[in-house]
Write a structure and sequence with these properties.
By secondary structure, the protein is an alpha/beta fold. The strands form three sheets. It has a six-stranded mixed β-sheet. Helix 5 links the parallel strand 5 and strand 6. It folds into two domains: 148 residues, 3-Layer(aba) Sandwich (Rossmann fold); 210 residues, P-loop containing nucleotide triphosphate hydrolases (Rossmann fold), CATH 3.40.50. The chain has 14 helices and 18 strands. The protein is globular, with a radius of gyration of 26 Å.
């Protein structure tokens, strides 16, 4: 064991969060205390994401133990071929004998965290030539480890980005020198749309469906349609702020909302992510575009709306009824926005409004995230609300449900994450924004300006 510079002790929550964590430490060794194996065993039953991850960890360890190895010598950390990770040379070690009781500073020995802490203390004392590092998603355990002089780190390999400020915003604000710095190779009109082909600078970073806006009152608003070797093709965005270009009675109130409607109404874009704080219009814009393309243009058969059922406060117990009835309390945003979208003119009768409400309700289905595995959606408009509470693995499960003709919209605010051990940089929504920015059939925009009410806008700033 003295040949390798570091020994990483993994907390149970790291493996519950990412089953491939075993293989993420390159040439370094990994150590699993007995209490971690026991906690994994207790969590293996069920259909939750944690249970699935735990079973996957057990399968990984089982595959490595197939050959006749002595556990004291460790198991070579050879990852399965389908993981496509960097080849590591480390070994996996298990606790094979009891540890000393340690100092009096360690509290209740019945707590799993304290057992892991005890293992780290003993290993640090016995392996003086090794750097022992405790890896945990639990900040309290990391604090206790620091008190005992043990190096403790968060698990970083599950991050999409090092910092949220690096996240792709989907919009690029240009100054008036833009046209001077980029020569226009060509311009043309096709089907009422205006296009420009401009020179691409050596250091310019462009992405398909990136939104561009000149920083003046009546400046150009355009969308990048094609990024080629030395040129970029731009399409002038449609102005949904004008009365004749409303979407299901909704008009854009700012440039970001206008870009969002351009992405949502484009049939060539299969995946759209909308980030923004409360009141920026994410759900309203997504629903308006969905109703317009489902009921008016007949592009999609129906709208499916789902979200992660994570409570902000205390649980209120079991809910009665069918899947749709159980999900209804979680879909307050849907109900509120439908009231806005189905408002009729003052001259319309109550009967006319009732017919409109019934028609809209019949084309919108509410589905639970828990039952998405194995499904395939054909010609559907799928809205994933509160997507910041979805893990990267759940996000992959949801997006891969899309069949031909389906469009997926992810809405969320990464500053309001309620899922334990999920952060702004590890959220499935952050992963989706970062990984899809190079794809020609995906679009993203970050909505910044609140349009709910002057009260809501002031509260978001003052509180």
């Amino acid at each position: 064991m003295a040949d390798h510079p570091r020994l990483y002790i993994l907390d149970t929550n790291v493996l519950m969060h990412d089953p491939t964590a075993l293989f993420r430490f390159a040439e370094h060794d990994v150590f699993l205390p007995m209490i971690v194996l026991e906690e994994l065993d207790r969590s293996k039953k069920g259909v939750s994401e944690v249970a699935r991850n735990v079973r996957q960890v057990s399968r990984f360890i089982g595959q490595m133990m197939d050959e006749d190895h002595k556990l004291d010598d460790g198991l070579p950390l050879r990852e399965p071929e389908d993981l496509r990770l960097e080849v590591g040379t480390g070994r996996l070690y298990f606790q094979t004998r009891p540890f000393d009781n340690g100092g009096e500073l360690i509290g209740d020995r019945g707590l799993a965290d304290n057992e892991i802490l005890l293992a780290a203390l003993n290993l640090q004392q016995k392996l003086e030539d090794r750097k022992v590092v405790l890896v945990s998603k639990d900040i309290n355990l990391r604090i206790k480890a620091a008190i005992h002089g043990i190096t403790a780190e968060d698990y970083h390999n599950d991050r999409a980005l090092d910092d949220l400020s690096l996240l792709y915003s989907g919009i690029r604000v240009l100054d008036n020198s833009f046209w001077d710095q980029h020569d226009t190779h060509d311009s043309w009109t096709d089907n009422g749309k205006t296009y420009y082909r401009i020179e691409r600078g050596a250091d310019d970073e462009w992405y398909p469906n990136q939104c561009l806006r000149l920083d003046d009152q009546n400046g150009l608003e355009a969308i990048v349609r094609r990024v080629e070797g030395d040129s970029v093709e731009l399409e002038v965005a449609r102005d949904y702020r004008r009365s004749q270009h409303g979407v299901w009675g909704i008009h854009a109130r700012n440039p970001e909302q206008n870009f969002a409607l351009n992405l949502l109404m484009d049939p060539e874009i299969d995946f759209v992510t909308l980030l923004g704080t409360a009141g920026t219009g994410k759900t309203l814009l997504a629903l308006a575009a969905g109703l317009s393309q489902t009921l008016d243009d007949k592009i999609y058969r129906e709208i499916i709306m789902t979200r992660a059922t994570v409570s902000v406060g205390e649980e209120i117990g079991y809910l009665p009824g069918t899947e749709e009835e159980k999900m209804t309390p979680w879909m307050g945003a849907l109900t509120d926005n439908l009231e806005v979208l189905t408002e009729s003119d003052d001259g319309s009768s109550d009967w006319g409004r009732a017919v409109t409400n019934e028609l809209v309700a019949s084309r919108i289905k509410i589905r639970s995230l828990n039952f998405m595995r194995g499904r395939t959606f054909l010609n559907r408009y799928l809205i994933i609300d509160e997507a910041q509470n979805v893990t990267p693995k759940q996000m992959k499960t949801l997006i891969t449900r899309a069949g031909p003709g389906t469009k997926i919209i992810c809405l969320g605010n990464v500053e309001q994450i309620d899922t334990p051990y999920l952060t702004e940089t590890t959220s499935g929504l952050t992963f989706a924004v970062d990984r899809f920015k190079h794809w020609a059939h995906a679009g993203h925009i970050t909505l910044k300006r609140g349009e709910r009410s002057r009260l809501a806008d002031f509260a978001s700033e003052a509180l």
